[in-house]
Amino acid sequence: MTSPFPPLTEAFPVPQTRGVGTRNTVPVVTYGDVAGLLSGTLPKPPAPSCLFRSDGAAVFYSGQVNMLFGEPESGKTWVALAAVAESLSRGRSAAVVDLDHNGMASTVTRLLGLGAPIPALSDLATFRYKEPEDKADLMATVTDLRRWAPSVVVIDSIGELLPVLNLNSNSPDDFTIAHSHALKPLAHAGCCVIVIDHVAKNPETKGPTGTAAKLRAVGGASLRVRIKDSFAPGRGGSCYLGIQKDRHGGLRAATPAGEKEPVAGVFELTGDCSWTVWAPTSGDRVPDSVPGADLASLKSLAPGPVSVRDIKDRLGWGGDRATLALRVYRQQLETAGA
Prior knowledge:
Blueprint: H1 8-11, H2 34-39, E1 50-52, E2 58-60, E3 64-70, H3 76-89, E4 94-98, H4 104-113, H5 118-122, E5 127-130, H6 135-148, E6 152-156, H7 158-164, H8 172-188, E7 192-198, H9 211-217, E8 221-232, E9 236-246, H10 250-253, E10 263-269, E11 275-278, H11 292-300, H12 308-315, H13 319-337
Parallel strand pairs: 3-7, 3-8, 4-5, 4-6, 6-7
Antiparallel strand pairs: 1-2, 8-9, 9-10, 10-11
Helix pairs in contact: 3-4, 6-8, 8-9, 11-13, 12-13
């Protein structure tokens, strides 16, 4: 069967490498100057510098690709846009690349509510919103943003990035190509790149879709977003930010140890859209979660589920799915009865 995707050499021509020789010349290869590095003072590891918590520590890294992933309506976009609003409020610059087609009116309305100044939003020198139409438009946007080098760039979302680039969303290799052409150039320009992604459909999966390739691409922090209080207009909401990956360790160093997936902070949005990222305290943990449909299925059972075997027999689920769903179901019952 003919592939619907163009050959990689057509999708992205391979740039000419440095030092390409002929039969009579030898390519010049330049290696890292380790001796020079060690003869001076080793640089300190990068520290997060974007989206500050209540204790003054930050969550995301500048000059790196950072990721937010979680279930739908878990608060991912709110968290990312809060980083944009914070940047603009501090006199810095920011951009939003809206691949999910949330719309400029919706995005700007949220940013205004989060405290972004109107003059900053109105000035192309400090804020740029783009909803790319196709691959050429997206790559032109990346080129422009790389030259401009804003403090923060939000890309919402990875799920739409590969199709726009005519790449296969199910291919780890294609994601690596997309990262090299659309994400890495922005990080190399010094931007704090925040990409939004969804969790895999399998509830037992520990990360976003295509986890392995995406985690390799994250040079900053990868945070799992899980609901604490559901978000609703006029009421706000809150969510946990769990650390799945922290390449440089700066975020973990400012976070109480003890959990495999420690809490980087709790993002809280009030009814009037004021917001805070609360610093974690010792003992905080990201609660287990399952897709809402699975939890609704358990709640609809009459009588209620009593064991994993009971769920497997009545719903036809696998053991891992039933175990996780039952654990969350019981946790919610305990919380409601507390």
